Amino acid sequence: MSAVRFGRLRATMLVPSANRPRRGFTLVELLVVIAIIGILVGLLLPAVQAAREAARRMSCGNNLKQLGLALHNYESAMRRFPPSANTTGGSANQPWSGQAALLPFLEGDNVYKNIDFSVGYHHPINKANFPPNGIATVRVPVLLCPSEPEDKPRINASTNQPEHYPLNYALSMGQYLVWDPVSKQSGGAAFAPNARFTAASFVDGLSNTIGMSEVKAYNARFHDVPNLPTTGPATPQQIGSYTGGAWSAVSGHTEWVCGRAIHCGFTTQFAPQTKVLFTATDGKIYDIDISGIREGINQVNATQAVITSRSYHTGMVHGLLMDGSVRSLSSNIQLETWRALGTRAGGEVIALED
Q1: What does the pLDDT look like over 55-91, one tens digit per residue?
Q2: Rounded Cα gap, residues 348 and 210, in angstroms
């Protein structure tokens, strides 16, 4: 009898009381949990962002490695390196960039082999081969850093149609002088208009000469600045006396097809990531580039330029040396070393840290 009662009592005890309150989270407990999650996310987010930036930096360096391989494939096929531009012949008014010359030697060459380099990039032939808006509007992934926030076509304000696509990897074109059409003097760098440089042209050695470095797309710029002095500014603060010509707050380095320095090049007047500040008429302060009369506009005016290498990577830019190697170059690199890297036959002794 007691066993039966015990069993009934046991069963009764297992049945929850209808009047017993259900246990849940209090507001304080919920707030504590949310606070802990917030702290954990706050601790994790910088690590995630750092990992993403490391991946972007690696991808950026790989882009330059591909361009270095294309550069040597071009040299192997043509027995010379490409010029920065060709300011003579049928494409003189729309000179093709050295980057464009490399594309047939990259993966995807069957597409790029449709380019007709004997005429300009806006010529109807090149528009017809790359409809609807032509080769100039085509996005070339290897020319774009994955950290570039303005990875988009440049729109023609009149037609509201894509007109050009930007780039992030520019050619080394001199310290300040880029090209003098009268004397045929170049800036002494790895690339120059109408150049036919071979490996023997690099007296300093291919491993001691920078060929390409990073730039920011849609950078503020002056171009066709008249009467630039033959000597470049000693400091960025002097840049105000060098301005004039055509101003744009957004159009520098927006034309990967164009062989003019303001779009496809950089100069070594200032070290990488140097701020070259200018206050525009709208009251805003811009980090600018400047170029004299652009290459090929006429056969009289020399082209000088202050076009600074910049990147979206903190404290450094990637540089492609002419031997095909890619180096991370500190923003604190000595200016003398940076300028020495920019000459192919300057005779300087260069020591880069690994």
Answers
A1: 889 999 999 999 999 999 999 999 999 999 998 877 7
A2: 13
Q: Which residues pair with 304 in a beta bridge?
A: 177
Q: What secondary structure letter does DSSP report for 121?
A: T
Q: Report yes or no: 191 and 81 within 8 Å, Cβ to Cβ.
A: yes
pLDDT at residue 47 in the model: 66
Residues sharing a CB contact under 8 Å with residue 139, sequence separation 6 or more, in sequence order: 151, 153, 165
> pTM here?
0.86
Of 204 and 88, the structure prediction assigns the larger pLDDT to 204
The runs of H, that is alpha helices, within 145-267 are 261-264
What residues does each domain of the chain span? 50-341
Alpha-carbon distances, residue 305 vs 164, 173, 222 (angstroms) = 22, 9, 10
Neighbour tally for 330: CB within 10 Å = 17
Rounded Cα–Cα distance for residues 18 and 75 (Å)? 87
Q: Determine the average pLDDT of the residues in 320-332.
A: 97
The dihedrals phi and psi of 213, each to the nearest 5 degrees, come to: -150, 175
Q: Is the link from the previous residue into 132 a cis peptide, with omega within 30 of 0? A: yes
Dist. CA 268–CA 262, nearest whole Å: 13
For tokens 């994790």, the residue is: 44
**Residue among 226, 217, 235 at smallest CA distance from 291:** 226
pLDDT tens digits, one per residue of 141-166: 999 999 999 999 999 999 999 999 99
Q: Are 162 and 138 in contact (CB under 8 A)?
A: no
